[in-house]
Amino acid sequence: PWTWVTPDRWYRAWVAQDLWGQWELHQAWGSRHNGRGRYRTLAMPDREAALQQTRAIARIRLRHAYVQIA
How far is CA 2 from each of CA 8, 13, 20, rounded to the nearest angstrom? Predict the structure, then answer.
C-alpha cells in the first residue's frame, strides 16, 4: 500500500484482486487526531489501470502537501 500523511490527515491506497479476479483500487483516508475516516473501493478494468489511477492519486496528494511514508 501507498500511504501519505500531513500533520492532521492520512491517506492510503492499494491495489488488489477480489475473489473473482476483478482488479480493485482501495482508498482510505481520515484524521490523525480523532480516528474518523472513510473508505471506498473502485472496480478497475485491469491492474495497469489501477496502478495508473494510484499514480494520479499520488500526484494529487503531493500537490496537497502530503508526504509519502510508504
Answer: 17, 5, 24
